[in-house]
C-alpha cells in the first residue's frame, strides 16, 4: 500500500517539476514499503542519498525557472527551500549515524512536505509559470 499516491491534484503544470515530484513520491513509497517489511535500512542505502540529491536538484530547477520568469515570490520560496534542505540534512545525519528509529519520522516529514508543498506552496507559482510559457 502506497503512503502517498500521485494524482493530478499535485500537478504544477510543469512537466519537469511534475516528473521530479512523482520521483519523490516513488522514493517515499519505496522506503515505506521497505519499512513495513523490516528492510528500511537496506533500501535506505540507495533511497536516502537519492532523495537528498533529488531534493537539491528539484529546488535548483524550481528556483532557476522562477529566476527565468522573474517570479515575484522567489526569495520567499528560496527561503522555504533552505529550511527544507536543513531539515533533510538533519535526517541524513541521523541516517549516517545508523539511527534506525528515524525512518517513521522521515516518512512523516517527507510525506507531509510533499503533500503540503505541492498543494499549497508550489501552487503559488502554477499560474505564473503557465502565464510565462513554462509547461
Describe this protein's structure.
- This protein has one domain: Up-down Bundle (Four Helix Bundle (Hemerythrin (Met), subunit A)), CATH 1.20.120.50.
- Helices cover 76% and strands 0% of the residues.
- It has helices at 15-36, 40-69, 74-96, 103-121, 123-131.
- Helix 1 runs antiparallel to helix 2, helix 1 runs antiparallel to helix 4 and helix 2 runs antiparallel to helix 3.
- The protein is globular and about 45 Å long.
- The model has no long low-confidence stretch (mean pLDDT 88).
Q: Could you report the average pLDDT, rounded to the nearest whole number?
A: 88
Report strand %.
under 5%
Number of discrete helical segments: 5
Domain count, please report it: 1
Short structural description:
By secondary structure, the chain is mainly α. The protein contains 5 helices and no strands. It has helices spanning 15-36, 40-69, 74-96, 103-121, 123-131.
Topology:
Elements: H1 15-36, H2 40-69, H3 74-96, H4 103-121, H5 123-131
Key words describing this protein structure:
135 residues; mainly alpha; Four Helix Bundle (Hemerythrin (Met), subunit A); 0% strand; globular
Amino acid at each position: 500500500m502506497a503512503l502517498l499516491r500521485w494524482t493530478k491534484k499535485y500537478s504544477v503544470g510543469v512537466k519537469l517539476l511534475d516528473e521530479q515530484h512523482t520521483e519523490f513520491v516513488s522514493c517515499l513509497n519505496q522506503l515505506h514499503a521497505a519499512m513495513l517489511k523490516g528492510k528500511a535500512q537496506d533500501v535506505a542505502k540507495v533511497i536516502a542519498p537519492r532523495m537528498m540529491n533529488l531534493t537539491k536538484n528539484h529546488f535548483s530547477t524550481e528556483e532557476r525557472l522562477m529566476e527565468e520568469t522573474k517570479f515575484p515570490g522567489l526569495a520567499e520560496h528560496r527561503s522555504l527551500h533552505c529550511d527544507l534542505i536543513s531539515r533533510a540534512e538533519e535526517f541524513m545525519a541521523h541516517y549516517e549515524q545508523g539511527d534506525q528509529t528515524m525512518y517513521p519520522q522521515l516518512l512523516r516529514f517527507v510525506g507531509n512536505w510533499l503533500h503540503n508543498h505541492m498543494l499549497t506552496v508550489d501552487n503559488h507559482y502554477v499560474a505564473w509559470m503557465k502565464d510565462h510559457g513554462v509547461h
